Amino acid sequence: MKKITARLALAALLVGVAGLSMPAKAETGQVAVVFTKGGFIVGVGGGEGVLHLRGKNYPFTVSGMSLGFTVGASTTKLVGRALNLRGPASIEGSYVVSGAGGAVAAGAGAVQLQNANGVILQLSGPKVGAEVSVAVGGVTIRLK
User: Fold this and answer.
1) Residue 140: is its pLDDT beyond 80?
2) Domain residue limits, the chain
3) How far apart are CA 79 and CA 121, in angstroms?
4) pLDDT, tens digit, for every residue of 86-123?
5) Distances from the Cα of 3 to the Cαs of 12, 22, 37, 54, in angstroms?
6) I need a labelling partner for 28 at 20 to 30 A (CA). Which of 12, 40, 55, 126 fits?
7) Domain 24-143, CATH 2.40.128 — does that match?
């Protein structure tokens, strides 16, 4: 009788532990973005990108604006990682950007952004054009 009661108690414990909800494991994806920006004082830009996660591609659009000192126009081709993903939809949202950068003819750009979902984008790549900025702004990503 004691063996049956002990086995039932052990089985109930195992079922209870197995039934606990475990938080989803954060994933890392690869990101490629082409972003074009131009302006004078207020910079406006947009572009497209793709998230590569779990062997699939998820295309998205990027739009943004900055306020501060911005003069000129540039196109930046960025590649990097998307950290802390909880599925492809978690890349969506607004990312706040602050910092300084610039390119004359050709240069390099690097940025780290984070959205409200906790997703961190670490991106870098060449910048082509003539644009100098010291601005605070943001970008919004939406899956297509």
Assistant:
1) yes
2) 24-143
3) 10
4) 999 999 999 876 444 444 434 556 778 889 999 998 88
5) 14, 31, 73, 46
6) 126
7) yes
Torsion sign, CA atoms 50, 51, 57, 62:
negative
Q: What is the rounded CA–CA span in Å between residue 118 and residue 138?
A: 15
Query: Tokens 């196109």 identify what position?
Result: 75
Both structure tokens of 41: 């004082």
Dihedral (CA of 91, 97, 100, 102) sign: positive
Q: What Cα–Cα distance (Å) separates residue 67 from each residue in 40, 47, 138? A: 9, 18, 9
Number of H-type helices and E-type strands within the chain: 1, 4
- 126 in Cβ contact with 106 (< 8 Å): yes
